[in-house]
Amino acid sequence: MKNKPPVIWINATLFTLTFIAAITLVPLYGIFIGFNAAEWLCFALLMFISGLSITAGYHRLWAHKTYQASSPVKIIYALGGALALQNSALHWSSDHRQHHKYVDINEKDPYSAKMGFWYSHIGWMLREYHSQGYHDYKNVRDLQNDKIVMWQHKHYLSLVLIMNILLPLFLGFLSGNILGMFLLAAVARLVVVHHCTFFINSLAHIWGKQPYTNKNTARDNGVLAFLTYGEGYHNFHHIFENDYRNGVKWWHYDPTKWLISALSRCGQTWDLKRVAEERIETARLKMQLINASHKISHLPNKEELLLKLQYEYEHVKNHIVHYYQAHKALLEAKSKRLCHQELSNQVKILKENLSNQLKHWRVLTNNSYKT
User: Fold this and answer.
1) Are residues 146 and 252 located together in one domain of the fold?
2) ∠ CA 280-276-217 to the nearest 5 degrees?
3) How far apart are CA 329 and CA 60, in angstroms?
4) DSSP, res 220
5) Which of 232, 251, 270 is the last residue of a domain?
6) In this structure, are 179 and 68 located in the same domain?
């Protein structure tokens, strides 16, 4: 039997003690003494700051460079990231880029979902599975030129102590209840933020749908999106990682996207990257073809149905391309204040044709396997 790597005792102790305290001391204190409104307010506020610093800062800004941000915003992210206690932005981004590059390859993906739920959720941080790469930051050389990232990396331990111990104690001093504030705003908040973030590495690769790609284990899951400030639309993210949005539809719950967009209106973020709608819809269409093909694979007339599906797929794809090309031309004409009435009429017709074609496609893909 192959020996397991050595235990990382700092991580194991931290995760164990905070979790035990969160499920024992916190509820016992709540039952026998009770938490006041100030403590609940600080719990919620610090949870949002730390959580959004990971999603908007560590993840979408630094790991994927999906937008640019001002120094004040970066400083808040750096402090909030220390509050989240998930390692420095430099180290976190290095691990995450490795994950995307080698997703589901057990030997190279730091938290490969194919190693099982426990491993991808927290186990990968409890032992020295990837000790050879702990200080190899070749894949984040761009971040080493970011003064704020390197400042946080250099002073990470001090910032962790300030944000996770001194700050809650100070808030408790102000509210008149140091112990209650520390238990709720420090311990309980930390455990909730930790495991909600870890769900993206574990549950978001197990539970949900794959509307855009089946080339990896990532899933879209609205429940996880609610718990992780929009990160639960993970199938979309793994195929379009350079988009600042994870929830691409207007109704998707993605407060990280809303924060980045709101900051852009204040001039604090800019160069927000968005994947072309044509690429998104084409990816979705291809997955619908794959799913429909699987459904009819057992039917006696599957060859005939497959030919029909393929023909309709190419037809719909052409409609998508023509519509979005015309739509892009219309937007460019409007921006240059050119005459665009004829283009507007063309786009309107193409949009209607595409809508009708998509309706026909949905009927075909939903009913073909019942034939």
Assistant:
1) yes
2) 35
3) 29
4) B
5) 270
6) yes
- From CA 254, how far away is CA 245, in angstroms rounded? 8
pTM for the predicted model, two decimal places: 0.88
Query: Does residue 3 lie within any of the structural domains?
Result: no
Q: Which residues contact residue 132 at a Cβ distance below 8 angstroms, ignoring those fewer than 6 apart? A: none
C-alpha 281/C-alpha 321 separation (Å) is 10
What is d(CA 212, CA 286) in angstroms, rounded to the nearest whole number? 8
Q: What is the pLDDT of residues 270-300, one digit of tens each?
A: 999 999 999 999 999 899 888 888 888 778 8
Three-state secondary-structure class, residue 127: strand
CA distance 22 to 184: 8
The answer to whether 229 and 52 have CB atoms below 8 angstroms apart is: yes
Q: Are residues 118 and 242 in the same domain?
A: yes
Q: Is residue 193 a contact partner of residue 227, using CB atoms and an 8 Å limit? A: no
- How many structural domains is the chain composed of? 2
- Structural domain harbouring 215: 9-270
Amino acid present at 357: Q
Q: What distance in Å separates the CA atoms of residue 20 and residue 26, rounded to the nearest whole number?
A: 9
At 130-160, the pLDDT tens digits run: 877 677 899 999 999 999 999 999 999 999 9
Tokens of 171: 């808030």
Report yes or no on 323 lying in a domain.
yes
Are 186 and 119 within one domain? Answer: yes
